[in-house]
Design brief:
The protein has 242 residues and is of the alpha/beta class. Helix content is 49%, strand content 10%.
Length: 242
């Protein structure tokens, strides 16, 4: 009888760790998941650190007003040769990688308006389409961007750099081209707007992507890609401001 009791005691002790682990997991997993979810910013808040860093840089060394602000997604953010590509102009890079047009609109009062630029150059929309937005929806977002700038800076010119299909997003090239067409048509009937065509720069004569213009991720330009981009943008900037 005592031996039987002993066996029961051993069985309970062996099962106890499993029960404790399951109970602990049941109690901590939801909390952990909730904590992780609440610490990941969503929407424009994702870029708050980058925007705040720009503002800190402005406080340390205020940029000259009346220049040209380049903003948009990673193509602008990664344009390290911006100043040397346009040496006759006061240019300011305020791009933030991964962003969409609506993000540029959201932060315009912090990274565009304070500089009172004579021109704003926007290159964005690719991430919008990649996220599932239709060209028409992205175009509407661009119109909202224009309206925001027009409200605060009525005399500032706005330049849209058209999308050029990247090899890694080659299946989105038709949507890229559709957005370009919508913006180009809008530009033709709207004073103060300019459009830069770049779609063909990344398409070879046989219709295939020009891989040699991109880094290993097949999404972002390398030096050769930026050289072509600068050649397209340069004519619309006008006479030098320096």
């Amino acid at each position: 009888m005592r031996f039987t009791h002993f066996l029961c005691f051993v069985a309970i002790m062996l099962c106890l760790p499993c029960l404790v682990t399951r109970s602990s997991h049941a109690q901590t997993s939801p909390t952990t998941s909730t904590a992780a979810a609440t610490t990941r910013p969503t929407g424009p808040a994702r870029w708050e650190k980058e925007i705040a860093a720009y503002e800190a840089a402005d406080r340390a060394n205020a940029p000259a007003k009346g220049g040209i602000v380049f903003t948009g997604s990673s193509t602008i953010r990664g344009w390290k040769t911006l100043a040397s590509d346009f040496p006759d102009h006061h240019v300011l890079n305020r791009g933030f990688g991964g962003s969409q047009i609506a993000d540029a609109t959201h932060f315009a009062d912090r990274i565009i308006v304070p500089y009172a630029p004579r021109m704003v150059v926007l290159r964005a929309g690719g991430n919008d389409i990649h996220s599932g937005k239709s060209p028409e929806r992205v175009f509407a977002d661009y119109q909202a961007f224009v309206e925001r700038i027009r409200t605060k800076l009525p005399d500032t010119e706005i330049v849209f750099i058209g999308l050029a299909p990247a090899p890694s997003r080659w299946n989105q090239r038709d949507a890229n081209r559709k957005l370009n067409q919508l913006v180009e048509q809008y530009t033709a009937t709207s004073p103060g707007l300019k459009y830069v065509e770049t779609y063909d720069t990344t398409v070879a004569a046989d219709g295939s992507p020009r891989e040699e213009l991109f880094v290993k991720d097949r999404l972002h330009f390398n030096a050769a890609g930026y050289k072509l981009l600068a050649e397209r943008v340069r004519p619309v900037l006008g006479t030098g401001t320096k």
